[in-house]
Amino acid sequence: MIITGRSAVIDGSGTRSRETTIFFFEGERAGLSKHRSPLAGFWALLVGGALLTVLTVALQPATDVRGCSNYGGNGNGTAFDDDSWDLLYHLLLLAWLLAVVVEQLLPVTWNGRKAGPIVARALLALMTAVAASCYVGFKLLLLCH
Fold first, then answer.
1. Rounded to whole angstroms, how far apart are CA atoms 108 and 36?
2. Which of 32, 47, 69, 134 could form a Cys-Cys staple with 77, CB 3.0–4.6 A?
3. What is the DSSP pairing of strand 3-10 with strand 16-23?
4. Cα 63 to chain centroid, rounded
């Protein structure tokens, strides 16, 4: 909702003139600012990580060489029951990393923070996502090959 109001502005000659101000939120009219979320910049990391965890549990990939489709034989096998998940799962990991990067580039995640905390939070989110996806991705990719 856009709310308009008037504010007094003193111009260079020292006279007061009225200027129309546009408020985008109800709280701005009262001089209040929007509350800063402590999770700003971590939503893609947390929600994407939770969704990938649920997907991994639902797919039940092999966690040991004996659970691979090629155990006792030779050739390439897969950690999943369906071969197509070998590619699709890793593409989902890549999409999760991309979502974390895009979220860090959105100005709404900065929300009045200074440059230092913005960079520190971005590095924390990116390094956590990269470490988690590389660990899981390489483990599942190399387990049965």
1. 10
2. 69
3. antiparallel
4. 27
Beta bridge partners of 9: 17
Banded model confidence at residue 67, pLDDT cuts 50, 70, 90 = confident
Nearest to 129 by CA among 105, 97, 101, 98: 97
Tell me the pLDDT tens digit for each residue of 100-138. Answer: 999 999 988 887 788 898 999 999 999 999 999 999 988
pLDDT at 19 over 90: no
Mean pLDDT (the chain, rounded): 80
Cβ neighbours of residue 129 under 8 Å, at least 6 residues apart? 45, 48, 49, 96, 97, 100
Check if the beta carbon of residue 7 is closer than 8 Å to that of residue 22: no
Residues with Cβ within 8 Å of residue 125, at least 6 apart in sequence: 41, 42, 44, 45, 100, 103, 104
d(CA 63, CA 71): 12
Residue range 39-59, pLDDT digits in tens: 888 999 999 999 999 999 999
